[in-house]
Amino acid sequence: MTQKYINDLAYKVVGCAIEVHKIMGPGLLESIYQKCMLKELSLNKIEARQEHRIPLIYKGEDLDSELIIDILIKDCLVVELKSVEKTLPIHKAQLLTYLKLTEKPKGLLINFNTENITSSLVPIVTEKFAGLSKE
To answer: What value does the mean pLDDT of the chain take?
Structure first.
């Protein structure tokens, strides 16, 4: 796995989000966009798992948790979907926490309640990403 591979994958996922947004427009519930994204990812032959549960280990003990990633792409890219007027720092913090707990290299915060997906897109990379080969 390389930075290029993950960035190319993220680019394809953003393309899927743009397609969903183009067809569905802003203003729907997050759950609707999630279903549409999963369909679009499938149509583009991108392996994705929905509502991936994150185990919460605290002081060596597995605690029953309700931490759930909206979409996990090819076991390396965390996608957090929103349908809010404006993304807030707490949304970014949520994605950062998911990345830390799963030790995945990159995440995308995608807000569908916007006129332009790419203008509100928040990509986040971790130290694990920085440690990967560039090519």
So the answer is: 93
